[in-house]
Design goal:
Elements: H1 2-5, E1 16-26, E2 34-39, E3 60-63, H2 74-77, E4 83-86, E5 89-92, H3 102-105, E6 112-115, E7 117-120, H4 121-128, H5 132-138, E8 141-145, H6 153-165, E9 169-174, H7 180-183, E10 192-196, H8 202-209, H9 214-225, E11 230-236, H10 244-256, E12 260-267, H11 273-278, H12 293-304, E13 310-312
Parallel strand pairs: 2-8, 8-9, 9-10, 10-11, 11-12, 12-13
Antiparallel strand pairs: 1-2, 1-7, 3-6, 4-5
Length: 314
């Protein structure tokens, strides 16, 4: 019972959820052109996470000083006086800020932005149906991601059901860290999973992400047994999971899964650094070197030697 509780946002029903963003015409989130929905809330705390704003289950205030036009309108509207100006630009006292959003409402330059807006299943379906013509001619659809899109299983089930009823292809980009009782019911409404395999050693996985990988691997096996297509993805991080031993172990695991379509290598990038800065958080992988193209190709060749299709994702 305790494990179930971890996967529900406190104080919410299952008819709405905090949405970070809706991005149209994406090409890296499954077949065809896809509309990507990002939700807040994740059971993992990966040290290389590029979207730290997706981890918590409540709205947060993002601060982007480079966009500030120094109008100063944000200061007087704050009811708790959490906004001050330093060199003409806003600084937020996060111990006081209640994320009421009043400062963001008056910030036309979007230097202050509330991250996370609650949407219902009906609102999301109405929004993505605007892209139906794109889905039809590109053989695309909707991919839900996060954070963890299945973090509130009841909501995910309602959304995926509604999308299928609207004849929209569905993909789920998941960590796999979901109780089977929450994952199993959505399977009839999922066309494919993008499934991260971050590290095969359970102790190392817990050190890097905060949780063991036992549930993740167990769920992947069960999903494959149900013949739901799996796209295995490896976020390749130097010193964390890029060893030959771990790559071989991952490839061996993927080879056991009958429904695996391909394995994708996602090399380290530092595009998330500004996101940490916007939340006034330290960047945990500062200075970590990018992986040379030669090593990426070597890793790809190694995975392919197991008879698996593999590609390096941009």
């Amino acid at each position: 019972m305790k494990s179930e509780t971890l996967f529900r946002e406190p104080g919410t029903d299952e008819d709405s959820r905090l949405v970070l963003s809706i991005t149209r015409m994406t090409v890296h989130n499954g077949p065809g052109l896809r509309t990507l929905i990002l939700f807040k809330g994740c059971p993992l705390r990966c040290c290389w996470c590029s979207t730290p704003e997706s981890q918590k289950t409540e709205p947060e205030l993002g601060v982007y000083p480079a966009k500030c036009i120094q109008c100063g309108l944000c200061v007087p509207v704050c009811p708790v006086h959490a906004v001050t100006l330093v060199d003409g630009k806003p600084v937020i006292d996060r111990t006081t800020c209640t994320v009421c959003g009043k400062c963001a409402e008056v910030c036309n330059a979007q230097a202050l932005v509330v991250l996370g807006h609650r949407m219902t299943v009906a609102q999301l379906v109405a929004e993505v149906k605007k892209d139906e013509i794109v889905f039809k001619y590109s053989h695309g659809g909707v991919t839900i991601s996060g954070g963890e899109p299945l973090f509130v299983p009841g909501f995910a089930l309602k959304l995926l059901k509604a999308l299928k009823q609207a004849d929209i292809s569905t993909g789920v980009d998941t960590s796999g860290q979901i109780p089977w009782s929450g994952l199993e019911p959505v399977l009839p409404y999922v066309d494919f999973f993008l499934w991260d395999i971050k590290q095969m050693d359970p102790a190392q996985h817990k050190h890097l992400t905060g949780v063991s990988n036992e549930l993740i691997l167990s769920n992947a096996r069960k999903v494959s047994e149900r013949n739901v297509p799996l796209y295995i993805r490896i976020p390749l991080i130097p010193g964390c999971n890029d060893s030959e031993e771990n790559i071989r172990a991952t490839a061996e695991f993927a080879k056991e899964l009958a429904s695996v379509v391909e394995v994708g290598i996602m090399p380290l990038h530092h595009l998330g650094k500004s996101r940490y800065e916007s939340l006034n958080l330290p960047y945990p992988i500062e200075g970590l070197a990018l992986i040379p193209e030669e090593q990426l190709q070597k890793t790809k060749n190694l995975i392919e030697s197991y008879g698996l299709k593999c590609r390096i994702e941009a």
